[in-house]
Structures are given as C-alpha cells and as structure tokens.
From TrEMBL:
Membership in a protein family: Belongs to the alpha-ketoglutarate dehydrogenase family.
Protein name: oxoglutarate dehydrogenase (succinyl-transferring)
One BP term from GO: tricarboxylic acid cycle
Pfam families reported for this sequence: 2-oxogl_dehyd_N, E1_dh, OxoGdeHyase_C, Transket_pyr
Length: 1011
C-alpha cells in the first residue's frame, strides 16, 4: 500500500451545505505520521514507497542548493498559519497532499453527485442533498457540465476552505499519485484538468462505489477501467448492435401492449436497456470461456428476457396469452411471468456454444437467489469447474426487494464459503426508485438499495439507464471483474417504471409528481437513435428498417401461436435431465427394486466407519469410544441410527451416486452422533472424512457445515438437487422447527415445484422431531404443515393395483416419513435414489432414539432382498392370536417405544397390538386396511405424543374413515389441543405423557362414548 492510500480525506454534503471531514486511517495524528515517514526515509530510502522516495529526494536537493531549510513534511493544516516557517518545501508538501486528497474525495464520494437519475428528480441515494446555490454549473472546468456538481464559486470555496488551494492553483501542474489513472500517459496535470477528468469519470452517468474494498490491486483495476482517458469508446458496429438490441427490447414490449393491452405482463418499459445489458454480460463472459450461464430474476421484464436473451420461440410466449389454451396433464402450471427456460445455442458475438438457463420462481421476490446459486454450484461441481471458469450465475433484482429481503444478505453471505461459493455472481439491480407504491424513503434505511453488497467487498457500479453506452461499458467491466477476480459485482441500473406495478395499476394515486415526469420522458430508444443519426452512425431509414424487421418477426410468430391448442409445460423446463426418465427411448417401468445390499458391503462400510483411514491422525478420546462402539455393532451385525445412515450413504457412493449433506453442524451432528469429519487433535485444520475412503472408484461425499441460515441454505440445496437426478442431496435442520425460517422455499418450491413447473426434485429434509420435555422450541418439526400440503385425497378410495406403492409415490407431491428404526431410515434413503423418478422427501428424524438401546436394527433387516416397510405390523404375541386382540394402536415414530414399554409393564402383550406407520404421506391405504382387517374385534386407536391439533391426527383420521368405509371408528389418544408445541416444564411433560399412556391401555376408556 502506497502513502496515498493512508491519508483519507473525504467531503460529505448534508442539508446544511458542503462540509469537509478530514480523517486518517491511522486514527489521527497525521503530522507525527509524516514525521515518521520522513525519518524512516532518512534511515533507509527503500523503506518507504517510491513516490515518497522521489518526493523527499527532490526536497533534499532543493535544501542542499540553499533554497530551503530541510525539515519534516507536515499534513495539510486548516490554515497556512499552522505551518512552521511557511517554507517552500512545506507549501509543496501541502499542495500535493491537497490534490491527492481531492482525487481521493472524488473516488470515494463522487458517486453521490453523479447524474444517475434519468428523471432528474432524485439523487438515487438517500443521504445526498445539493443546496440550491450549487445547482448551476459555471462551465469553466470541463466540456460536460454536471447540474449536480459544484458551481465554480462553490468549488473555489471548497478548494480554499478545505484544501487550502487558491484560484491561481487551478493552472498549476501537479504530480499525479500512483493511485489514479486520470493522466493516462501523462504524469502531471493542471489542477483544472485534474478536476475536469475526475468529474468526467466519477460525476457523470456512472457512479462508482469501490473504495471500501480492502484489496489495493482490485481497487487499482477498477480505477484503471474507468479513469483512463478515452477508455469508454465504441466502434460504429458496436453502436449499431446496441441500437438493434434496444429496438428488440422496446418493440417486444410495444407488441405485447398492442395485442394484449388488458393483460398483466410486468413489462420492462423504463428499463429497456436491461436486455442489451444482460446480453453484454453474457457476450463478455462467453469471450472469457464461460459455457453456461444460470439466471434468476423476478417477474418484471421476464418475458422480454425469455424472448431476447434466452431466445425462446416467440410463438411459445405469445400462446401463453391465449385464454382458450388448454393445459396439458402435468400439474397446475403457473403464470407466464414465473416460468423458466433452458436453451443451448451459439453466441453470435463469440461464435461459441452457450447454455442459458432461466430458473422458474414465484412472486416471492429474491427467493430464487439461493436456488440459482445452488444450481450453479452443482453444475460447477459435476464439471470439475472448481474456479467457476465454465459456469456462472447472473441474478436480476428489484431495488426495493434487494434492500428489503433478508435472503439477499443470506445469499451474499454464502458467496465465499468453501462449500457454497460459485466463484462470483453478476448482480443486476433494476432500480425503479420505487417499490410497488412505496417511496424509497419509506422502504430502506441505507443510502442505496445496493448497500448490502458491501458486506462481501463487492464493487457497486451505479449507472444511468438512459445512457445505453454507459450501461454497456459498465456491464462489460462487471463481467470481466467476475471472471478475473471470481467475486460478486453489482450493476445498479438507475431507471424508472413507465407504468404502474403492473399494466392494470394506476401509479398516479401515490406518485403523481414522479409520473408526471415519466409521462414527459422521451424513451431511451428514441434518444439513442437520434444521437446515432445525428453523428452519422446510422441513417433514419436504417433505423426504421430495423424496427420494421422486428415487428414483422413478432407478427409472424403471433400468427403461428394461434395454432397452439395445448400448453406443454415441458417446453418451459429450466433443468432438463436428459435420459433420466427413459431407457433406450422407452419410459422407465414404474417399479422400485429392493433396497437391501449384500452383507459384506454392510460389514465393509461398518469397518471403515469405525476406523481412521489416515496414519498418524490423532482423534479425541471420546470419539475413540464412539468408533469402538461402531466396530462392536458391526461385529454383532447391528446398527444404530448413525451407522445406518453411514451405510446408506456409503452404499450409494459405491453405486456412483454423489451424496451431499449440508446444514448447521452436520459434520458432527447437532446431537454429536454423526462424526463424519474427524479432526486431528494436534494439527490445526487437519481433517479426515472416512466416507471418502470406502471404495477406490466411489462417487464423492460432500458433508459441509453451513452458515447460520435456513432460508438461504435450503434454497441453495434445492438448487443443487435440481442440477442432477443422480445425487442424494440432504439438508438437515439443527432442530426440526428451524425450517420455519425457510418456509418460503418449502411452500413455493419444494411442495409445489412439480405442479407449477414440472420440476422433479429429490431433495431430502432431515428434521429432528420429538417431545423430550425440552420446551416448546426444538420439540416439534411441525409435521401438520407438511401433511396439510400433501396432495393425496383423503376421501378417494384407492384402487389397489400391483404397482400401487410406486404409482402412489409418483402421484404425490412429496413423501413424508417418520422412521422408528435405523433399518427404515437406511431403506428410505436408498429408495429415494432407486425410484424411477424424484420426489422431495421429508424425514422427521429422532433425538433420543439416536442412542435408545431398543432403537437398533439387525443386518437381517438391511441385506439383499429387504426393502422399506411403509407400515411395520405387530410381530409379538398379539399377532399370533389376532382374534383375541381388544385394541389395535396405530402410531408413528418415537412414541412406539413408550407404548411398548407401557404395554409390557401392564402385561397387555396379548390384548393390545401396536402397528407403526413409517410412511405417513402418501397414506399407506392398502397396508392400513390389511392391518385393521387382521384384528376384526379390536378397537382402533391413533396414539401420538404431540398435541391433538398438531402433527398427524387431522391427516390420518379422514383417511382411516375412507379405508374402513366408516364401518369402524378410530379413537384419538394423545395430548390435548394447545397453542405451543410443547410444555417448558419437565414435570408437566411427564404427567401428560403418563396420562395419555394410561388412556392408550385402558381397555374401557371408550366404552359408552360416541365417535
């Protein structure tokens, strides 16, 4: 870092007018610092930056010639009287430092006076204020007067009051510091020219925020890209291409407005430049060898992006507006401005293949951000693209959502984490300067909507969207930044929204003055076309021909769209899985093979799981005991919960299935049961993942602790699972109720994704659940929410075909299970991959059962030929004489062990049978009917440890009634309805537990009662 990077001088404008604030990064005491620099130079000239070395040598030469008396240089005082002696050397130091401080002030604060608002009524940020006497520029400094810059009189006041420079200094030559490129090949410039060039760079249509970045090389890179004189030049062909792209962007919106004036389409009017902006980012990235670009965006401008960036067939878009269009069989579909797309094509700017994927998303703004990042990460992983040189992401945001939605921060926070980084994302903010109807002053506290990006040192480029060339240059630099430094970057397109929130909305209700100006605003296409015609780049005839050409394309596509009778949603897939659903051109059979594996495979995995594959690796003594326990279980042919999971993962890795487990503390496990990552107790950061040492040619296993985020991380893992069907992707909540803060991803993507977007997804959610007397938090994973969103019909009596189990799974929107044995957990994980399709899997995992002595499974339940049991029937004494059984209790999960213990203590093994539902949804109608039929004289009871208004009862009750044809009743046993999921009092928990267990085995409890 050079000396000019130490002294920080910035000027800030408040409502009271210009005010300078001087500060030093050393915390004050600037004079003592300069003295230290000087004396350090006297001792060793090489110990200081070369610019200081040159300066001190020149001053010494003057002193040795008798012109001045040498003395330590001083920092800028507020007045000349503070100088000791007023020597020529002191003035030289003062003036040069003042100029350097002035340059730095422009670099730091110049964006606050840039002409960013196309409407000319706002400042684009919330903390800048220009007093009225500074509005008029006296154009004595440059060729481009800036109505937001200082007036000549105010500039002189600033120079005199805060930099101690005079009007006479304006024509004095100054040595330029190494931290600026405004001189180009020149090393000195007059102060007048310095100010002119700084204003031209920082105070016109581009506002740069980058000086907060803590890397000098990166700051210098940005300075060079924008400060170098004449760097923003465009050839005639580049200008013509830009004009053609603007024509397509604007005329597409005009065409929709003419044909469907009363339809919502969330058009791009007011920010038509976004289309050439995105195409420039893609072109530049393709030039830098990017092969795949994954985009996420809200609904505004989505149809235009589909048409003119992704290049979807126009007739496919236009047919969406036909009210008579019939839906195909797949799901409910979604509105046209929520749909995605996948397209491989040639990039004409580079003649290279490019794959573009626009991810479908709902109206929940910014929810798609982490999904895009997860999909991008997966694509990079499967291609071995560890540095993001082939696959990248672009995220388009709205200004109000970018500032207001917390998932934006969560997504940024993932950007540099090893297991989540996508090596940089280009963020494009469509800054309407308004939300739906909410003024920015009511919508955010930060000066800019983009300030959240500062947390990850992402440069922010604000640009006036009515200056197409400035936009294109900024986007080109942004793409180059991403592919050079592999870091995020933000392009803030400061624009306006010509219509209301949608085409049916009236914005004059709430923003009358803004929309009066908008109605007077000349469209950007006309302004840019007039400019090019005036300078002779195109003729009026060529411009009109370009418009006519695209209008003709739209009309022809419109004609073809009328032939579309049925909407095939498969045309809108954003993540196709070629070859997955078919074998040799034929659909896969609707069957699922047995999920058991050979015993020698189980033994091998158990042996590795109980060892440390690396030599000289010292593990914790407590962990040694855990590994010995695993070895003993393997020897005895049994598994607990953690070992069953190990064997499920390990067997899939052997079969070439990538396994990724993500979440807070998943490497060890919240309950210290997993320990998939071992840590050397003597060597910092030395770790071992035994799972990756199972087989010579196995698939990789990724287990990664996440940041303390649910919304962002679950969205990320969902996107990861979208990329390939041949991977088991799991997200584990630290506690089951932590999914509350990720509910948007669950509701909008996981539960409904296939119905809306034909998007199969095999993500697995592991949600620890169980009433353990630990209070209302972290007890319940809220099973009732998942069951309420399940789409199987409680009143429809099913037809039991040979493939009922698999076809039922195919028809459901997700699978909900609560396993009571490690073997069940093992099988359901393997079934998730062996099914001929993909469905989300929700597993309510245990806490106390992780170490329960009875919650273990024999190898016999896991070897070849065995499978997942949707229902585990009674196999004790009651099953031997079913006609003698007086009560059949159905349950799920951990409460089974409480019931078995209580039955034994009361000696009711022959009179009470207990059946477990391992799969709750889709409901196992066939097996439940079979169990009820087996015990014809028994009362039927549903027992759960949760409160009656929660969990399973409201879901299972009507389905029991349907399958039993209402000939028999099923009674409820469990805790009474409540508002909170569990009590915070341990004694109250035990009392309520004993109460419902007593009721469950009181064989006279329901006598005389009506259902």
């Amino acid at each position: 870092m050079g000396p000019h990077d130490v002294q920080v001088v910035s000027w800030q404008r408040r409502s009271s007018g210009p005010q300078a604030t001087f500060s030093s990064s050393r915390g004050g005491g600037g004079s003592s610092y300069m003295e230290e620099m000087y004396f350090a130079w006297l001792e060793n000239p090489q110990s200081v930056h070369k610019s200081w070395d040159s300066f001190f040598r020149k001053a010494s030469e003057e002193a040795s010639s008798g012109l001045v008396q040498p003395q330590p240089p001083l920092v800028i005082p507020k007045s000349r009287s503070a100088l000791s002696g007023g020597t020529k050397t002191s003035k030289l130091v003062e003036d040069h430092l003042a100029v350097q401080s002035l340059i730095r002030a422009y670099q730091i604060r110049g964006h606050h006076v840039a002409q960013l608002d196309p409407l000319g009524i706002l400042d684009a940020d919330l903390d800048s204020f220009v007093p009225s006497d500074l509005i008029t520029t006296i154009d004595k400094l440059g060729e481009h007067p800036n109505p937001f810059a200082l007036s000549y009189r105010a500039l002189l006041h600033l120079l005199t009051a805060f930099y101690d420079l005079r009007e006479a200094d304006l024509d004095k030559e100054f040595q330029l510091p190494t931290t600026t490129f405004i001189g180009g090949s020149e090393s000195t410039l007059s102060l007048r020219e310095i100010i002119r060039r700084l204003e031209s760079t920082y105070c016109q249509h581009i506002g740069l925020e980058f000086m907060f970045i803590n890397d000098v090389e990166q700051c210098q890179w940005i300075r060079q890209k924008f400060e170098t004189p004449g760097i923003m030049q465009f050839s005639s062909q580049e200008k013509r291409t830009l004009l053609a792209r603007l024509v397509r962007s604007m005329r597409f919106e005009d065409f929709l407005a003419r044909k469907w004036s009363s339809e919502k389409r969330f058009g791009l009017e007011g920010c038509e430049v976004m289309i050439p902006a995105l195409k420039t980012i893609i072109d530049k990235s393709s030039e830098m060898r990017i092969e795949t670009v994954i985009l996420g965006m809200p609904h505004r401008g989505r149809l235009n992006v589909l048409a003119n960036v992704i290049r979807k067939d126009l007739e496919q878009i236009f047919c969406q507006f036909d009210p008579k269009l019939e839906a195909a069989d797949e799901g409910s579909g979604d509105v046209k401005y929520h749909l995605g797309m996948y397209h491989e094509r040639i990039n004409r700017a580079t003649n290279r293949n490019i794959t573009l994927s626009l991810v479908a998303n709902p109206s929940h703004l910014e929810a798609v951000d982490p999904v895009v990042q997860g999909k991008t990460k997966a694509e990079q992983f499967y291609r071995g693209d560890l540095e993001g040189k082939k696959v990248m992401s672009i995220l388009v945001h709205g200004d109000a959502a970018f500032a207001g939605q917390g998932v934006v921060y969560e997504t940024f926070h993932l950007s540099d984490l090893p297991s989540y980084t996508t090596n940089g994302t280009v963020h494009v903010v469509v800054n309407n300067q308004i939300g739906f109807t909410t003024d920015p002053r009511m919508a955010r506290s930060s000066p800019y909507p983009t300030d959240v990006a500062r947390v990850v040192n992402a440069p922010i480029f604000h640009v006036n969207a009515d200056d197409p060339e400035a936009v294109i240059y900024v986007c080109s630099v942004a793409a180059e930044w991403r592919n050079t430094f592999n870091k995020d970057v933000v392009v803030d397109l400061v624009c306006y929204r010509r219509r209301g929130h949608n085409e049916m909305d009236e914005p004059m209700f709430t923003q009358p003055l803004m929309y009066k100006q908008i109605h007077r605003q000349v469209p950007v296409l006309k302004k840019y076309a007039d400019r090019l015609i005036a300078e002779g780049t195109v003729t009026l005839q060529e411009f009109e021909e370009e418009i006519a050409k695209y209008d003709r394309i739209c009309e022809e596509a419109f004609g073809r769209s009328k032939d579309k009778k049925i909407l095939d949603i498969k045309h809108w897939l954003d993540s196709p899985w070629p070859g997955f659903f078919n074998v040799d051109g034929e659909p896969k059979s609707m069957t699922c093979p047995a999920t058991g594996i050979p015993e020698d495979t189980l033994t091998h995995i158990g042996t590795v799981a109980s060892s440390v594959p690396l030599e000289g690796f010292k593990i914790h003594t407590g962990l040694s005991r855990i590994l010995r326990g695993r070895a003993d279980m393997t020897k005895n042919r049994t598994v607990d919960w953690a070992l069953a999971e190990y064997m499920a993962f390990g067997s899939l890795l052997q079969e070439g299935i990538h396994v990724r487990l993500s979440g807070q503390d998943v490497e060890r496990g919240t309950f210290s049961h997993r320990h998939h990552v071992l840590h050397d107790q003597d060597v910092d950061r030395r770790t071992c993942v035994p799972m990756n040492h199972l087989w010579p040619d196995q698939a990789p296993y990724t287990v990664c602790n996440s940041s303390l985020s649910e919304y962002g991380v679950l969205g990320f893992e969902l996107g990861y699972a979208m990329a390939s069907p041949n991977a088991l992707v799991l997200w584990e909540a630290q506690f089951g109720d932590f999914h509350n803060t990720a509910q948007c991803i669950i509701d909008q993507f996981i539960s409904t994704g296939q119905a809306k977007w034909v998007r199969h997804n095999g993500i697995v959610l592991l949600l620890p659940h169980g009433m353990e007397g630990m209070g209302p938090e972290h007890s319940s994973a809220r099973p009732e929410r998942f069951l309420q969103m399940s789409n199987d019909d409680s009143d429809a009596y099913p037809v039991f075909t040979e493939d009922f189990e698999v076809s039922q799974l195919y028809d459901c929107n997700w699978i909900v299970v609560n396993c009571s044995t490690p073997a069940s957990y093992f099988h359901v994980l393997r079934r998730q991959i062996l099914l001929p399709f993909r469905k989300p899997l929700i597993i309510f995992t245990p806490k106390s059962l992780l170490r329960h002595p009875e919650a273990k499974s024999s190898f016999d339940r896991m070897v070849s030929g065995t499978s997942f049991q949707r229902v585990i029937p009674e196999d004790g004494a009651a099953a031997q004489a079913p006609e003698q059984v007086r009560r059949l209790i159905f349950c799920t999960g951990k409460v089974y062990y409480d019931l078995v213990k209580e039955r034994s203590s009361q000696g009711l093994e022959e009179q009470v049978a207990i059946t477990r539902l391992e799969q709750i949804s889709p409901f196992p109608f066939d097996l439940v009917k079979q169990e009820a039929k087996k015990y014809p004289g028994a009362e039927l009871v549903w027992c759960q440890e949760e409160h009656k208004n929660m969990s399973y009862y409201d879901y299972i009750s009507p389905r029991f009634m349907t399958i039993l044809s209402r000939a028999r009743h099923i009674w409820y046993v469990g805790r009474d309805p409540a508002a909170a999921p569990a009590t915070g009092n341990r004694n109250t928990h035990l009392v309520s537990l004993k109460k419902f267990l007593d009721t469950a085995f009181n064989l006279k409890a329901f006598e005389g009662k009506t259902f």
